[in-house]
Structure formats: structure tokens, C-alpha cells
Amino acid sequence: xxxxxxxxxxxxxxxxxxxxxxxxxxxxxxxxxxxxxxxxxxxxxxxxxxxxxxxxxxxxxxxxxxxxxxxxxxxxxxxxxxxxxxxxxxxxxxxxxxxxxxxxxxxxxxxxxxxxxxxxxxxxxxxxxxxxxxxxxxxxxxxxxxxxxxxxxxxxxxxxxxxxxxxxxxxxxxxxxxxxxxxxxxxxxxxxxxxxxxxxxxxxxxxxxxxxxxxxxxxxxxxxxxxxxxxxxxxxxxxxxxxxxxxxxxxxxxxxxxxxxxxxxxxxxxxxxxxxxxxxxxxxxxxxxxxxxxxxxxxxxxxxxxxxxxxxxxxx
Length: 316
Ligand code: HMG
Ligand code: MG
Description:
Radius of gyration: 18 Å
CATH superfamily: Aldolase class I
Strand order of the largest sheet: 1-2-3-4-5-8-9-10
CATH architecture: Alpha-Beta Barrel
Helix content: 40-55%
Strand content: 5-15%
Shape: globular
Number of helices: 13
Bound molecules: 3-hydroxy-3-methylglutaryl-coenzyme A, magnesium ion
Largest sheet: 8 strands, parallel, barrel
CATH class: Alpha Beta
Number of strands: 10
Distance between the termini: 63 Å
């Protein structure tokens, strides 16, 4: 006879906070490096599993994160030496960005590299100045080197439900891009991150999207939901039902890709990490996040943005 004991343990869901990257990349004002570090310190104390701390992209394209290397230099070693240190990650669009990640590694900061492609050709051109195929080609020389060094890898795909320029995107098109990325390197540790860039998805859209994937994808999938229509938390619940166990959020609900903005509409923020954690736990899962400390990070995130917008400069 098999006896099943209820251990009272809930299943763990992984939480990545992307506010220092996605949250701050679309701010009209450039946030002071010291303020970014203050936010990252708060997040380090909050118990999230991963923090996307900055981007190593072209400063011509995203001047808001031109201080990426300086942020890593200031906080990287401190963050890495913490007990239970969260994984730190950075966006890397090409070999130039990868060299920056290697430099950090040599200085004792082991970064996860997040390479980003899209399921929409127009968005790909707008965001990265290349076709989907060209963007994936830029990752070709990076991925084997990263894999050999055992650097954790995340592959983002943007516009997985809708593109701000092309409209609806078919789940099969998203799956096609994921397959091309996994051809570069496929291992159970590769994080497939699906970006709902403009925050319009319904739970039905998420179910249709996940129908295009196998269990082997879903078990290492992250969902990255923006929250324009206020439905992201319901989409999280739907994805949990389908086996997704990793989500991105942005403290204070900041965020948005500058290249997802149109003349009519500024790109929307991510689901707030506070709302994400609350919903995941309400659905019966554990996150390990300290909600009071996360709230302190959210207050800090909103404060530094408001301060910069009002031209008051950095707070202490
Ligand atoms: P390009 O103009 O074709 O690049 O842009 P290039 O190779 O011709 O270089 C142009 C200049 O940029 C050169 O400088 C390079 O040195 C420099 P110059 O000689 O003119 O002075 N450069 C760099 N500098 C530092 N680091 C680098 C780098 N690369 C080139 N890595 C490129 C192509 C991909 C570089 C550009 O389009 C780019 O950086 N795009 C990034 C856009 C971006 O960061 N968007 C937001 C992130 S994606 C997002 O938010 C979506 C997501 O959240 C998921 C979702 O919500 O869907 C992830
Ligand atoms: Mg995003």
C-alpha cells in the first residue's frame, strides 16, 4: 500500500525582478547610478530568486542603461558574496555585450546572460535593427562560449501574443522562434522567457500560447507579462495551472520597452512584482519572498522614478 503524506510544503515558484532593467530603460529621465544601486540593494534583501540588473546594449539605443558596466562594478561583487545571493542577469544583444559579461565574470561577478529575439519581424527591426534571423545569428558566436563556461542562459522572445506594429502573433510563430533559439543550445537549464510585451493577453491567450509548447519547454519556461489591461495576474494563474513555475515582475510595476511605444501609446509597465508574488501565493505556491522587504523595494523604485521625473536628482 502506498501512503501519501501531506508535508504541508507548497511548490516553489521562481521570481525574477526586472525593475532595474525593464523598469528603468523606458524612463524619460536618466536615473542616477547611485539610485539604481539603492534599488538593487533593496531587491537583494527581498528574497527574489533573480534580479535583471541592467543591459549591455548600445548606449545609442538605450541611453538610460549606458551605465550598465558601472552598475555591475558597483554592486556585482557585493551581491555575489551575499548568503543566498540571487542570480544576477543582464541583457546581451551581441558579442560586444557578451564581452562585457565576460569582463564582469573575470572580476568575480558570474552573470546570467539574457539574449532577446522577437516573434514579430517589425518589432525585431525596431528593437534590434535586424530581422529575426539576423538577431539569432548574432547569438551564434556567443552561445557556445557561454555554454562552455557554464554561464546561465536566458532566451527571451518578445511579442508572444501581440506586436505593437503587426497586431496578433500566432503561437506557432513564437514556437518557431523558440525552436531556432534552442537549436543554438538546448539544455534543461536554458530559460525560455516569453515576453508579452504590450500587456494585452487574456488567460485564454496564454493557454493558446502554451498549447504550442511541450512539457519539456513549459518546465523551464518563464513568463514575462506587461500589464496594460490589468489582466497579467489572471494570466499568471492560468500559466500556473499549466505548469509554468517561473515569472518576471518589476517592483512598483515600472517598465516597458522603449521600442514597443507607438505615437499613441507609451509602452506599458510589467506586472508589479508585489502583485505577482501575492497572486502566486494566493494560488497556493511558495515564492520565498519577504513581502515587506519587497514592498520597500517597490517604494524605492517608484520614488527614484518620480524624483528623476521631477528633476530633483538623487535621494539618499
Ligand atoms: P546597431 O545600431 O545595428 O549596432 O544596433 P551596431 O553594431 O551598428 O553599433 C552601433 C553603435 O552601438 C556602435 O557605436 C557600437 O559600438 C555600439 P559607435 O561606433 O556608433 O559609437 N554598440 C554597443 N555598445 C555597447 N554595448 C553593446 C553594443 N552593441 C553595439 N552591446 C543593437 C544593434 C542590437 C546593438 C541595438 O539595436 C541595441 O542595442 N538594441 C537594444 C534595444 C533594447 O535594449 N531594447 C530593450 C530591451 S528588449 C525588451 O525590453 C523586451 C523584453 O523586456 C521582453 C518583452 O517585454 O517582450 C526583454
Ligand atoms: Mg519587457
